[in-house]
Structures are given as C-alpha cells and as structure tokens.
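Treating backbone geometry as a discrete language has practical consequences that deserve illustration. No coordinates are needed to read the tokens, only the vocabulary itself. For completeness, the protein is quoted in full, as a sequence line and a line of structure tokens:
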Amino acid sequence: MGFEVVAIARGADKAELVKKLGAHHHIDSAVTDPAVALQSLGGAKVILITRFRGKTVSETFKGLRPGGVSIVLPALDQSRSRPQAWI
C-alpha cells in the first residue's frame, strides 16, 4: 500500500527496536509532541493505537490529516483474556 510507518514510543532507547521491526520513523513522545511530529511528516492517514497513555493518545489524534482515521486495538491481559484498558 506504500504506507510510511511511524512508531511513537517513550524513550530514545526504542528507536533501534522500532526501526528493526519495520518503522521508517521513531517519535520519542518523552521529548517530542507526537501531533507536531506527525503533521511535519504530512499528517497521519491511519493511526493504529495498541497502548493507552492518556495524554499521548489524545495528542496523537491531532496528528491525523483531514479524513484520517484512528483504529484502537486494545492489548489483552493474557491471564484474563480481556482488554487492559479502553478509551
């Protein structure tokens, strides 16, 4: 599909891992506003949220381009087979 993948994670130590997993860019949310960074890349067409950190998630929505969509896939607590958190 030609998507350019951007991973948002706290900490510079995550950069190598996310690039190894296929991300083209890493945004360190501990030092960079994710919305500003996403908009500087042209805005996100799709945001796939797999972890919930209140402020980071709400700020990330501002990084969507017009007509962009956000998809929330909650992580499951394997011992309980239920979502850890919901927005």
Remarks:
- The chain has a mean pLDDT of 83.
- The longest strand covers residues 64-72.
- The first helix runs from residue 15 to 20.
- DSSP finds three helices and six strands in the chain.
